[in-house]
């Protein structure tokens, strides 16, 4: 269907619904009981789960000495958010790291790409990040910015994304959706308390996605079940399970032309390297978790939780990469891992079926309150076991031909006759940890938090043929401490110090030490901040931080490859974050954030790489989303958003930058009753002015890619309460 025609139909459908002679819902019933508390880490409704997405326990937003933002269900619905990359648009501290259409996505927080092994969590427990993370069964998304050593152990210093699942409730909703490309979407949300002690919540979604990129249409099926069992008067068991399958061709990213120029006159609807024999990338994921809590007394509680997460990827790509075989690069004047100066690029038949990641975690905690003299204590003691394994088949990665970014149609070539090899275990990583955290109330207006995590990491790695490659053991104590001062009932000030540890990165194939893993790296974070809540409905936050860790990069040298992947010098990210979330008056809801970040490397041994911003770390980002309830039509509201990012470095020496961009979003929402049933309409239009921009300059496996931002996208959903 013609895109403009489809967009007109979407608008007409919404407009037709506005004059319906239906009784508007009372304003008080428009919001869920927790909407005003969405700025808090912990919801306040009866029976709300106690989540731990950060290194300082599960206190409310104001009493947590860390920068945390919460995206509630209402915001996700109004923005019609479907993907992780769209989620990241709502917070200025987040950005895309490597997020191609049709593949699993990864984001960066405070300039550090999240660790896909431990950086994504569901109800506080680790899930494999290499999956299409669904949102249908999610009540809110908690974003911890910065070190999470106590909560997660071995993890990248950027932060943690925690998905908080929907719990059983009396709810029956059906959602239908479409977009300007003609996609079809359906979802159901059903909850019921079967007995006074057993409740269930079932979510399902079916998505027939028509992408704005040619040949990148896909489909997705998702099913999720949550159950709560109140065992006696003191115990509770919460169980969650979800399964998802998806298939969609993955769109290759662009690379710099001749390692020095941004591609020009790019058609962002074209799929680079497309071949008729290329298959959709299949991603199947299963996530299981359980939490048992027992109240020994009003002051003491035990928590035992376990999880299993599995993701299987069938990777089938006609991949656009480099110019090793292009005539324009034969003389060696252009690095082969970039596109040629004239836009030529190599096309590879890449097949890697049955890539399997498994995360398994077991955690036991004891939480309690007591006093020693005039000092009150909130104590958390715990033990944690985490296992991560990766199984892969020996992949096919064969050159089949050369295309050009300016081709109207990609030339067609024969696929490689080679077949993938057998599956072998590539990584087996096990973490054992003990942790403790004590929140001490020193006076009416002072709190001191002190604790740490002792972690033991045992990791083994094998090459593509199953030969042992590495056997490492690391033991570290990761301390943390924080001081909170309650200046008054509305304002808290804090200062914190946290240490973390992350695995060393793998050397890219084009370096002299290809495939080698560098030693684990220690990181340090200092942060001071302020949290101000002038009303129960509004929160304002500010955080100033400094994160440092050893710098890992491909160092130019005299080796045959020209580069060696090394760990040398320090990488330091210093930044300021501002946030505002909540309700201003009766009509306006606001979600706004800004980030100023200075990311530099020093003492690297390569003068050309020092003194300028690091790749894919814009100095300034801003994000604003507002929702205004129009007074003249009950239930009708307008939404608007603005996203900004300053110029983005695209080369290690800082010579090439992707330009700054502004993107404006808009939307309408309408709630009314139809035959006594609540009916919600949400129209979201992203990139209203259809601006072209490079949304990121992120990396994968040591190579850097450029992804254009999506053109104007209009999405419409209607939700009926049954």
CATH superfamily: TonB-dependent receptor, beta-barrel domain
Report strand %.
over 45%
Radius of gyration: 25 Å
Distance between the termini: 31 Å
Choose one word for the global shape.
globular
Main β-sheet description:
22 strands, antiparallel, barrel
Describe the structure.
The protein has 722 residues and is mostly beta strands. The protein has a single domain, classed as Maltoporin, Chain A (Beta Barrel). Helices cover 5% and strands 55% of the residues. It has 5 helices and 37 strands. The strands form 6 sheets. It has a 22-stranded antiparallel beta barrel. A 5-stranded mixed beta sheet has the order 1-7-8-5-6. Strands 2-3-4 form a 3-stranded antiparallel beta sheet. The longest helix is centred in the first third of the chain and has 15 residues, at 3-17. The chain is globular, with a radius of gyration of 25 Å. The model is unreliable at 1-52 (pLDDT under 50).
Give a nutshell description of this structure.
This protein is mainly beta.
What's the layout of helices and strands?
Blueprint: H1 3-17, H2 27-30, E1 67-72, H3 73-79, H4 84-88, E2 94-98, E3 106-109, E4 112-113, E5 120-122, E6 125-126, E7 138-145, H5 149-152, E8 159-165, E9 171-179, E10 184-193, E11 198-209, E12 218-231, E13 235-248, E14 281-295, E15 300-321, E16 344-372, E17 375-393, E18 396-404, E19 423-443, E20 446-462, E21 468-486, E22 491-502, E23 521-535, E24 538-556, E25 563-584, E26 588-602, E27 620-629, E28 636-645, E29 648-649, E30 657-658, E31 661-674, E32 677-686, E33 694-696, E34 699-700, E35 703-704, E36 707-708, E37 713-721
Parallel strand pairs: 5-8
Antiparallel strand pairs: 1-7, 2-3, 3-4, 5-6, 7-8, 9-10, 9-37, 10-11, 11-12, 12-13, 13-14, 14-15, 15-16, 16-17, 16-18, 17-19, 19-20, 20-21, 21-22, 22-23, 23-24, 24-25, 25-26, 26-27, 27-28, 28-31, 29-30, 31-32, 32-37, 33-36, 34-35
């Amino acid at each position: 269907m013609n895109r403009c025609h489809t967009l007109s139909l979407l608008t007409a459908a919404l407009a037709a619904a506005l004059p319906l002679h239906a009784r508007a819902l009372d304003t008080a019933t428009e919001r869920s009981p927790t909407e005003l508390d969405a700025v808090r880490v912990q919801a306040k409704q009866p029976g709300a789960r106690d989540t731990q997405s950060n290194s300082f326990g599960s206190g409310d937003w104001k009493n947590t000495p860390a920068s945390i933002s919460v995206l509630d269900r209402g915001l996700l619905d109004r923005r019609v958010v479907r993907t992780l990359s769209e989620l990241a648009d709502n917070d200025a501290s987040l950005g895309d790291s490597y997020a191609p259409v049709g593949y699993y996505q990864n984001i960066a927080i405070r300039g550090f790409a999240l660790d896909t092994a431990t950086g994504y969590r569901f109800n506080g427990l680790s899930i494999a990040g290499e999956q299409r993370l669904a949102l249908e069964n999610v009540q809110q998304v908690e974003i911890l910015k910065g070190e999470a050593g106590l909560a997660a152990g071995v993890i990248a210093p950027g932060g943690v994304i925690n998905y908080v699942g929907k719990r059983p409730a009396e709810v029956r909703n059906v959602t239908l959706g479409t977009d300007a490309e003609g996609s079809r979407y359906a979802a159901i949300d059903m909850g019921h308390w079967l007995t006074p002690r057993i409740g269930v919540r079932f979510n399902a979604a079916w998505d027939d996605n028509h992408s704005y990129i040619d040949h990148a249409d896909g489909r997705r099926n998702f099913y999720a079940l949550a159950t709560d069992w109140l065992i006696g008067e003191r115990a509770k068991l919460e169980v969650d399970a979800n399964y998802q399958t998806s298939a969609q061709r993955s769109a290759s990213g662009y690379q710099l032309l001749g390692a020095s120029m941004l591609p020009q006159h790019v058609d962002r609807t074209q799929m680079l390297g497309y071949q008729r024999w290329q298959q959709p990338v299949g991603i199947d994921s299963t996530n299981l978790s359980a939490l048992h809590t027992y109240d020994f007394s009003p002051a003491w509680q035990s928590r035992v939780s376990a999880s299993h997460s599995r993701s299987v990827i069938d990777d089938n790509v006609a991949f656009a990469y480099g110019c090793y075989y292009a005539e324009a690069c034969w003389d060696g004047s252009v690095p082969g891992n970039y596109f040629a100066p004239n836009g030529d690029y190599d096309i590879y038949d890449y097949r890697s079926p049955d890539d399997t990641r498994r995360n398994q975690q077991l955690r036991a905690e004891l939480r309690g309150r007591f006093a020693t003299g005039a000092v009150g204590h909130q104590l958390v003691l715990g033990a944690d076991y985490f296992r991560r394994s990766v199984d892969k088949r020996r992949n096919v990665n064969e050159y089949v031909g050369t295309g050009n970014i300016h081709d109207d149609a990609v030339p067609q070539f024969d696929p490689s006759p080679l077949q993938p090899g057998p599956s072998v275990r590539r990584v087996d990583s096990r973490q054992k940890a003990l942790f403790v955290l004590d929140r001490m109330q020193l006076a009416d207006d002072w709190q001191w938090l002190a604790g740490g995590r002792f972690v033991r990491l045992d990791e083994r790695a094998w090459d593509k043929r199953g030969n042992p490659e590495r056997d490492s053991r690391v033991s570290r104590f990761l301390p943390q401490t924080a001081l909170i001062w309650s200046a008054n009932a509305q304002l808290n000030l804090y200062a914190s110090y946290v240490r973390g540890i992350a695995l060393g990165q793998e050397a890219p194939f084009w370096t002299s030490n290809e495939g080698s893993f560098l030693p684990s790296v220690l990181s340090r974070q200092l942060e001071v901040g302020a949290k101000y809540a002038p009303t129960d409905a509004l929160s304002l936050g500010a955080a100033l931080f400094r994160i440092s860790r050893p710098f890992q990069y491909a160092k130019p040298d005299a080796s045959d490859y020209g580069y060696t992947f090394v760990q040398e010098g320090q990488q330091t990210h210093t930044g300021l974050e501002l946030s505002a979330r909540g309700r201003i008056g009766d009509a306006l809801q606001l979600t706004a954030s800004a980030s100023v970040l200075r990311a530099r490397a020093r003492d690297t041994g390569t003068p050309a790489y020092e003194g300028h911003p690091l790749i894919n770390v814009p100095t300034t980002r801003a994000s604003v989303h507002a929702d205004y309830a129009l007074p003249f039509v009950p239930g009708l509201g307008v939404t608007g958003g603005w996203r900004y990012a300053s110029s983005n470095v695209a080369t290690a020496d800082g010579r090439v930058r992707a330009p700054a961009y502004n993107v404006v979003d808009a939307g309408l929402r309408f709630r009314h009753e139809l035959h006594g049933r609540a009916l919600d309409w949400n129209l979201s239009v992203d990139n209203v002015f259809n601006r072209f921009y490079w949304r990121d300059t992120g990396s994968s496996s040591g190579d850097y890619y450029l992804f254009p931002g999506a053109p104007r996208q209009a999405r419409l959903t209607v939700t009926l309460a049954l």
